[in-house]
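TOKENISED FOLD:
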Amino acid sequence: MLAGRRVMLARRLVMLAGRLAQQAALLTVLSLAPLSAAFGQELGRWTTAAPMPSSRSEVAVAAVGGKVYVGGGFGGGRALEIYDPAADEWSRGAPVPRALHHGAAVALGGRLYIVGGFADGWKPIGSVYEYDPASDRWRTRAPLPTARGALAAVVLGGRIHALGGLGAGRRNTPAHEVYDPATDTWTARAPLPTARDHLAAAVVGGRIYALGGRIDGSYARNLAVNEEYDPASDRWRPRTAMPTARSGIAAAVLNGEVVVFGGEAPSGTFGEVEGYDPRAGRWSRYAPMPTARHGLGATVVAGRVYVISGGTRPGGSASSANEIFAR
């Protein structure tokens, strides 16, 4: 009799343990659900395209008229290489007026602009070059008031905003200067709250987002900073930091999100792809880059991001990679 009761009690304990295990598993799933939703269930996809004719890093990349333009960089000299996504082919345009690296490129009014950079080694320059694809000609425009390289540049309201970078003495500058192509003049606006270089920037909803970067050129001092600029008030404010602190990055806007690619640190190059939704104030994680890189460029053509060039190892390295991200 006593033995039978012991058997029944043991069975009940086993059943109770099973139920508790099921409940624990359910609680685990429920606790992870908000994280999954906030940190990316939609992975996106990658494809590869025709590689660049040259291998480069620290390039200036922008799309004009449905084509991708790559200028400057280590390994590029003065070459301007042009990629046609429709034909999956590369061609060359008129050479950039000066060999440079760590410049920033934007498209405005059907023309390509390359702003700032380093030349003659690591000398910060304020050069501004404008390229007209229709005539295949360059012209020099009014220089940046603050010479610098490893800066970011974006277009907002028909003007070019040049942000941060490394200036004199290889020290960070918080400079935020705005170029008006109609008058060929620059004006100063509210400086970056966090002075840095090798950052990325993008525009969503009429506001600028300045992301990541490093302190005084050291990728051992990477940042996860995300700062938002409101042109109406000429003010910056902090936003949700990047999940991964990094520099030597590129950014592009896709489906209303700022998507950040690549980067470097002493431990290696980053393949991370993280997207920031300004409306929700949160980040999502997407499929990593097939080729982890830094000093790369990213630009959008027809709803796809072309992620071009960049070094595959920290420091001095280069590639001819041309990889395409879509969601």
Summary: DSSP finds one helix and 28 strands in the chain. The CA atoms of residues 157 and 206 lie 8 Å apart. The longest strand covers residues 123-132. Residues 1-40 have pLDDT under 50 and may be disordered.
